[in-house]
Records
---
Amino acid sequence: MPRFSVTALGQAGFRLEAGGFVLFVDPYLSDQVEKVEGPALRRLRPAPMRPEQVTDADYVLISHVHMDHCDIETLLPLSQASPACRFVGPRIVIDYLAGKGIDSSRLIVANRDRLQIAPTIEVTPVPAAHKLIEQDSQGFLRYLGYVIEWEGKRFLHTGDTCVHECLIEKVRACGPIDVALLPVNECNFFRDRAGIVGNMSIREAFRFAEEIGARTVVPMHYDMFEPNQAYREEIEIIYTRTSPSFRLVLDPDALSI
């Protein structure tokens, strides 16, 4: 079995590699959010690479159309640097990328059906509640997470989501999760008032992980923008005090799978 490399890119972005196959999820490698929304949303951590340096991407999974997940300043240069790369996302994302000039032959709409993206890699879209599970007039989900089954291992990237019974059911149906990548930046009144759509709290993410049988949890979506932060110390204290059954990994670059 090949060894997996998991690299956190910040926010909800990850790079996964095994056996020479490279998969990105929600890469945000630019400063587009700050350019559009202003200096309050300046990056707190630098991008680990420039999009034009990504010459080895095979697939990019995109959870939804918000610019910190579907960043055209990342995806266009990445598509040029990795000309064989294909892009998977909700229909609203695929329509957006097509409108920005990425050829339709490289775009795959994800909704509810399992996708075979390589001989040993299956991707199952699961609904995300951001804050609600939403679909368009034709029944296509607007927000997704992904269960990635790869060489006998099962990864979950939820995208942006609150805990929802439907999400729990769909993930459980896929089987136990080896590595769960979960947002922990929480919904609250003050973020709502500021126009920031939050996700699970740390406690909710930990309880969700227990309910889906996750063996390892990697928190995400807490380290990029000051108004939307959680602190590592918070995460560590809650993990220590609640003593869940899963392993907590805050630095996935060191994750051994």
---
Amino acid sequence: MRINKYLRDKGLASRREVDKLVKDGLVFVNGKRAENGMLLNETDDVAIKGKPKEYQYLAYYKPRGLATQDFADRTSVIKTWKKDGLYPIGRLDKESEGLLILTNDGRLAREILSENPKYEKEYIVTVKEHLRAGIPAIFESGMQTSILGKLLPAKTKIISPTTLRVILNEGKKHQIRIMLNDLHYTISSLKRVRIGHIRLGNLRPGQTRSVTKEFSF
């Protein structure tokens, strides 16, 4: 999205005012002066000089069957929350469910999307077949996959014959699905229950709760 449209959509200024703010060097993207017409990424941090930005942070339970980042789908998470100036950090694929962080803080987004162990992601995964006892050792050694190559070690625990807990420090696309598919398992459900110190808790699908205090830097 172009910066001019972004600022207008946020209600921060009229079209004419936006152009002048940018021209006068009062708009900053990731700490650098913006230019008219520049394109923004979802994780960019936009600020107007003299207008302190209020950051918001929500824990959101993404329901299964809902897209996260599909701009063409008006029911997707990113399209639904755009009007509130919030966007999801990272993604959960359409058939997965669980915790997303919604925010307007690009700085935090970049931290969570990095391989910072402070923001490890925890998942509960159920498969149709019985799990072999050696699965945790394979995941924790840093699995070599058919599509993603060599992965970082992932802490893993079998918690029932068909359910395991997986903790990742990286977030490659469809990572857990690819890992288990390579080992000939069929996933029945995949739920993210934690990002760093933020847990899904008692949220139900579609619900949110404020976690602003937990992200006070």
